[in-house]
Amino acid sequence: MIEPHELGKIGEELAVEYLTDKGYQILERNWHSGHKEIDIIALDDTTLVVVEVKTRKSDDYGEPDIAVGITKQKMLIWAADAYVRYKNLDVDVRFDIISIVISDAEPEIEHIEDAFVCTSR
């Protein structure tokens, strides 16, 4: 049986592989600012993409992406702002969610671009 922490790591590996195959440049994995963490930071052309990865064994209780509520969104926005300031970047930022269901079959990956919008910095 896969432990939840291991499942998350597997999901992140699948997400990195998926994004790389789509031509994204992976800049950071598990980037921290204080207690806030961004799973993946990537470049899609000239857009900085902040990616939250949610992985589950099934979708019995809904798709994994529904776990990214308003509190998590605010945390990601705060962490992305910290990253942009730390790196002194002047780029557009997009927030994506990669939802992965790993069951007995092939993993199902859903990439939700522009999953939510930051209205201010």
Can you name the CATH architecture?
3-Layer(aba) Sandwich
Strand arrangement, largest sheet? 1-2-3-4-5
Write down the CATH class: Alpha Beta
Q: Uncertain regions: pLDDT < 50 for 5+ in a row? A: none
How far apart, in Å, are the first and last alpha carbons? Answer: 42 Å
> What is the third-level CATH name, the topology?
Trna Endonuclease, Chain: A, domain 1
Percent of residues in beta strands: 35-45%
Shape designation: globular
How large is the count of helical segments?
2
Q: Any descriptors?
A:
Trna Endonuclease, Chain: A, domain 1, 121 residues
Explained architecture:
The protein has a 5-stranded mixed beta sheet with strand order 1-2-3-4-5. The chain has helices at 4-21, 70-87; strands spanning 25-33, 36-44, 47-56, 93-101, 108-116. The model has no long low-confidence stretch (mean pLDDT 89). By secondary structure, the chain is of the alpha+beta class. It has 2 helices and 5 strands, in the order αβββαββ. A hairpin with a 2-residue loop joins strand 1 (25-33) and strand 2 (36-44). It is 30% helix and 38% strand. It has a single domain (4-116), classed as Trna Endonuclease, Chain: A, domain 1 (3-Layer(aba) Sandwich), CATH 3.40.1350.
